[in-house]
Amino acid sequence: MAINFGYFAKESITSFKRNWVMSLGAIITIYLSLLLVGVSVGSGFVLGQVVEVGDLPGHEVQAAAAEHQSDPGVRHQRLPLGRPRPFKWGARRGA
After folding, report:
1. What is the pLDDT of residues 44-64, one digit of tens each?
2. DSSP 37-91
3. How far apart are CA 45 and CA 38, in angstroms?
């Protein structure tokens, strides 16, 4: 069964003319949803690059831990003494 492209185009244009409000609403809805997905993916990528903590050398982490341990104003320290784990979205604290 062959598809007649001319008939499809003519019917599409006629439908857009008859129901222009719903067609415009559908186009705007699709545009906004794709925009939100793009912003979410883009910001997740950028934040993933900014919050990269796995690149710290071990001696810098050790030096920071020693500095905090010698400070009398620090009551509790949550710095890892080894190589820090990279940040993971959706991971719970302490997991």
Report:
1. 888 877 765 555 566 676 777
2. HHHHHHHHHHHHHHT--TTS-HHHHHHHHHHHHH-TT-------SSPPPPP-TTP
3. 11
Q: Alpha-carbon distance 51 to 38, whole Å?
A: 20
Residues 6+ apart with CB under 8 A from 85: 53, 54
Residue 83: CA atoms inside 13 Å, Cβ hemisphere, count?
Answer: 6
The tens digit of pLDDT for each residue in 60-85 reads: 767 777 776 777 776 666 655 555 56
Tokens 């509790």: give the residue. Answer: 76
CB 87 within 8 A of CB 53: yes
Joined together, the tokens standing for residue 18 give 């008859």
